[in-house]
Amino acid sequence: MQWVATRHILGNVSVRTKLLLVALVPLLTALPILFSLIFYWGLGYYDRLLTFKVSSDLTVAHEYFIHVRERIGQDVSSLGDSYRFVTTVRDDGNANLQRMLAEKQKSLDLDFLNFLDPQGRVIVSSNGKPAELIAESWPVVYSALQGEKATAIDIYSEEQLRQLSDKAAQQAYIELLNTPNAAATKKTAEKSGMVIHSATPVYDDDGKLLGVLEGGMLLNQNLSFVDTINSLVYAEGSLPEGSAGTATLFIDDVRVATNVRLFGNKRALGTRASQIVRDHVLNDGKTWLDRAFVVHDWYISAYEPISDSFGKRVGMLYVGYLEEPFRKAKETAILLLALLFIAIGIGGAYFSLRVARSIYEPLKGMNRTMTAVELGDMDARTGGVQARDELGNLSRHLDELLDTVQQQNAELKSWGNELDQKVVERTAELQQTNKLLVQAQQQLVLAEKLAAIGEITAGVAHEINNPVAVLQGNLDVLRDTLGAAVQPVQGELQLMDQQIYRINTIVTKLLQFASPGEFAGYVETVNIDEVVADSLVLVRHLLNQSRIVVVHKKEATLSVPINRGELQQVLINLCTNAIHAMKDGGKLTIVTSDWEDEKGARGVLIRVEDTGSGIRQEDIAHIFDAFFTTKRQGGTGLGLSISYTLVARYGGTITVRSEPGQGTEFTVRLLA
Q1: How many CA atoms lie within 13 Å of 549's alpha carbon, on the beta-carbon side?
Q2: Longest dimension (CA), the chain
Q3: Cα distances (Å, whole numbers) of residue 300 to 2, 63, 267, 333
Q4: Rounded to an integer, what distance in angstroms lies between the CA atom of residue 344 and that of residue 524?
Q5: How many C-beta atoms surround the C-beta of residue 347 within 10 A?
Q6: Burial status of residue 331 (CB atoms within 10 A of its CB: 0-12, 13-18, 19 or more)
Q7: From CA 236, how far away is CA 248, in angstroms rounded?
Q8: Closest CA to 315 of 282, 293, 287
Q9: pLDDT tens for each residue of 15-60
Q10: What is the pLDDT of residue 446?
């Protein structure tokens, strides 16, 4: 109903109003919608792009973190497996072992190296032997005691760090700073340390466990570690001007190693992550990929949890970059896009109004002229329009039309008379064509009858030959058996010979009637496609009965020397077999083409393809055998055998390709 009302309202307004609506409504509705879609999709894609980048940055940082862990594990393992270390443990005293551990600690950039006995007690330490230090409780040490190398992240308490060295405890100590949005806490300082902890078993030459080599690197205030991550992730030029990339390592939610600045060159050690990030990463164990407030500004941030060797989430790895430059770029792009759409809208509206006016004025003039003509003023004219567009042409054509209306009326009357005469002539031609069609149909009926008689005659003739041959053979046996005693019945036997000969003569004539091509030897150069066309005419009555579509593709250019009637007989046999195979209708395709082999011989291929029931694989080897047929009724088994013989007579071949249920294709290969 609403659409009907709208049509009624529009039907009563002027063309000028309609043109203005057509010009302005799409413009003023499409532009805001387009702007909204671009704004929505653009912002969403922009945010996803920033998130994807920080996710990629976190992947790089994670891989480097894993690389450092693996390197430390490899260094400790290599030292524990070295011949020098094993001989020192086995043969030298603890003093030499301690000096060696201190030397390797420095060269491997580790914070401690300990050698433990098979019970997990520390015997020698690179920092001096600790008092009553038992390391067996660490999972990595336990794995090493069981013969497996292991490396993991572990959190050392202040007491455990002091047992390693006072320097380690001092390096781990970080005073907590008040941080906006952080979770409430009573702690005033972070005293525990995050350690990359590695242990490897040490064996003598006989495979006996001598002990365990334990080593580690303290990550608290390890500024080179986070600076290396930052340089890998945020190389120079990877961020726009004004932005800065940062990397941080957390114990719980406390920054223990970071390149985030509080002010100047002072790093934000001791500041804490916001509570929402802490809950998402440490409590829920999920990765944070979003904007987050870091110390005193908003960053596009990525946090992932860090778990220790006990499987507990004990810290976080962070990378991120300042959001402000990207936010300003986004706001600038939105503003420019809005200004661009406004400019396009104003320009488009002005242009649309001008175009609408140029359309309306010629229409107004033509409407005025047609009104005058309807009132009887046959001399009224538009006077033409200067514009060379369709409306200008229409105006000029209207004037020309009014000038020639009377002349065209007279011509129409003359054309009417001529049309009547042509109708009479066409009617006579149609009657003549109908007569020819009736004659053609009669010829087809006659051809069909002759074909049926030919099939019956061939069958009868071939069936008679067998008993006649038996009679002749028995007569010969009878003469040989009777010998001289045959004289009394010699006349009767000769009479029987004459009658058998007469039967043979009749059979020969019947075969000649059924297959006249076998007795014709005249060879001529024929056009293959013409013979195909003639053959299709002869089987058209069968085609019409079976709802079969015929496709004749004429691609052959060569002519072949052959008896035309014999080739036609071959094609009719193939087409008839194809038609019988498509009882429920189908498609008969005949394709002719040229061929040439590597020896220079050439000729024509004729492919006859149907979409019928196909031939069973076990029958394909026998289809060219005489009297072999797959037809339950009406088949003599001679058609393909005779066709094969006729083609072979001229040096050609017939091949077949068929799949049950998918149709059959016969290929006739003739020499040119």
Answers
A1: 4
A2: 150
A3: 51, 20, 19, 19
A4: 79
A5: 11
A6: exposed
A7: 19
A8: 282
A9: 666 666 666 666 667 667 766 666 666 666 777 888 888 899 999 9
A10: 40
The model's pTM: 0.50
Single out the residue of 658, 647, 569 nearest to residue 618, CA to CA: 658
Beta bridge partners of 636: none
Residue 404: other Cβ atoms inside 10 A: 11
Helices and strands per DSSP (H, E), number in the chain: 17, 21
Angle at 555 between CA 551 and CA 556, to 5 degrees: 120
The pLDDT of residue 358 is above 70: no
Rounded Cα distance, 612 and 175, in Å: 91
What's residue 602's pLDDT? 93
pLDDT at residue 443 is higher than 90: no
CA 200 → CA 147, 152, 166, distances in Å? 8, 12, 25
Token pair for residue 600? 């220079």
CA 408 to CA 426: how far, in whole Å? 25
By CB atoms closer than 10 A (0-12, 13-18, 19+), residue 275 is middle
Compute the C-alpha angle 639/641/644, nearest 5°.
110
What b/e string do you get for 171-195 counting C-beta neighbours within 10 Å, with b at 16 or more?
bbbbebeebeebbeeeeeebbbbbb
Antiparallel, parallel or unpaired: β 254-258 and 313-322: unpaired
Closest CA to 670 of 544, 566, 577, 598: 566
CB 203 within 8 A of CB 86: yes
Q: Using the Cα atoms of residue 531, residue 536, residue 537 and residue 538 in order, give the sign of their dihedral.
A: positive
User: Is the predicted pLDDT of residue 13 greater than 60, yes or no?
Assistant: no
Q: Which pair of tokens denotes residue 494?
A: 């000769």
91-135 pLDDT, tens digit each: 877 888 888 999 999 999 999 999 998 888 888 988 875 545 556
Strands 586-596 and 548-555: parallel
Q: In the predicted model, is pLDDT for residue 394 greater than 80?
A: no
